[in-house]
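Pasting two entries for a bug report.
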Amino acid sequence: MIVTRSDPAYSRHRCRTFLGWSAIVLTLCALSGRLHAETLSESGIETVPYRLSITPSPYLTVRGIPSSTDRAATKVSLSYLDRPLSVVVPTAESDGTRGHVMAGALVFEMTVARFWSNGLDAGLGFGAHVYQFGEGLRPVTGEQDPLPHFGGLDPMLEVGYRRAFGRTALRALGAIYLPLGSPRALSGERRTRGEMGLLMNQLWPRVEWGAELSFLYRPLIELSEFAWGPQLKLALAGRFQVMERLWVGPEFLFRPQLARQPGEHHALLLPNLLLAAVEYRNKRAQIMASYGVGLPLSHISDKISKQQYVRAPTTPISHVSLSAQFMLD
């Protein structure tokens, strides 16, 4: 059979070819950064407070529940995070000083998924900090090496199973994060992490909402006076139709840190992100722009000073994102 340029199969072939080469190039970049980092730094911290879902969804922070048909989809996102990683460095002063380990980061993420009519789905997520800047680990460890401007993210493999009950749908998921990113760039970690969770969506004619509750296991990492370990995730999102193809709505991501914090301070770290989004949809694509802020919900207290509310080290001051999602067949 001869496939012409006007044939829909030709367009799907070109799209799959582009996605395949994109995955190969980004994976090689991530591995390159990983190999270069082996002798330079023992610290690796995931500075992006969330990851894109692999399934088609109108939401940024809530993994969606796709329809029951056999389909494939991809989602790409470009985000800028303002001061996504800051830590308090102990000094002679009681409060210490805040070091901006990562002052800004431009993050590209891409996910590709396939799901089947029997309810199963699977996919791959990957990406990179295509440009970032900051002080690096110098304020914390005294290292003089600058923060690399590029760093690969750890790729994510995810599988899920979904069931629909009228307007309500449920999805159980399991995911694994492979340590192939760039620890020296603080965009990847040195150990494998696992995640499992449950999602619920409700779809009405002009209103949609979704929620996710999940648990991420992470081997303990300590940096300055803080520790990163296992985390819970609670994500809520809603959409309201304001025009035929235009939807708007809020999103809230809450990721409490479960690891016991070191030192004399009694700290409770509550990374979070509150977003407002506007979205254009048609039958084959969704394009969304969002703006978000990190809230000072974490609190630190000791025997002398009163309780203080601060932003968690991995809570950005602000976040701007543009994402697009396409059905491939």
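Entry 2 (this is the one that rendered wrong in the viewer):
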Amino acid sequence: MNINSILLKLISIVKYLQKLTFYRSAFFYFQQKIFIKNFHFYLFIILGLILGGCRESEKLFNTQVEITRMDFVNFNEKNEPITVDIEISYHECPGNQFEVIRGDAEFAKCIINTGKKIGDKFLVDIQWKWNPMGYYRWFIVKLDSCERKVDPLDEVSFDLVEECEDYKVYGNVVGFTCRRIPSGNLIKVCPWFRRN
């Protein structure tokens, strides 16, 4: 190899390294530009991941309800009730809010021992917690002195919680409209109905 070919090789290597450095710096420049341009997007994603896991913790509320219906549904061979359905009215809440709950044999026996009947008022404990379906739920876990086990497979218990108001046309009441997702004054007075 002669000196000229070595010099030419060195010059081509230097030019190659210069190009490589230029491309590398250009790449980082554009990468920074893209990051800065999308900074709000990345910030939103990070905050969403952080706050997505933040929910209010489980709470226990208590209030007074009125029994509007009580049915002993199933009985064992000794004619003792093994399930009971109780319809309650949240008379302290605005509107006409009610719920039907089912309880097991222990719960039914305890309800009988309290001596309460239709029209009587009970103190209830309401557990309010996050549901994996993506919203908050409430469960009555205690009526008076009777503990209620909540069965996750219970398809009989249900609630009818809604806020209704007059529906007006040209200033005249022609009907009513109801919202099934509680909000406003109902949530202020009875916060366990909040779903989000």
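Dev reply: Rendering is fixed now. As a check, the viewer should reflect this: DSSP finds four helices and nine strands in the chain.
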